[in-house]
Amino acid sequence: MIRPLIAQALHSLRHQKLSQDIAFSLGSFAVLAISGIVINIVITVFRDAAALGVFNIAYAVYIVASQVAVWGLHYSVLRHAAYHASDQEARGHMLLTAAVCSIAMGLGAGAVVFQAEPLFAVAFNSETTGAAIRNTALGLTVFPLNKVLIAYLNGLREMRAYAVLQALRYLMIMALVALVAASSLPIEVSTFCFFVAELLTLVTACLYIASRRLVGTLGFRRSWVVRHYQFGTKALAAGLFTEVNSRVDVLMIGIFLSDRATGIYSFAAMLVDGVYHVLAMVRINFNPILVAAIRDRDWRTVLNLRRQARRIVLPVTIVLALGLIATYYVFTAWVMPSEKGLLEGLPSLAILLGGLTLICFLVPFDNLLMVSGHPGYQTLQQLVLVVTNITVAVLLLPLLGIEGAALGTAVSYVAGVLTMAIFANRLLGWNLFTNTIRSAE
Question: What is the pTM (predicted TM-score) of this model?
Answer without folding.
Answer: 0.68
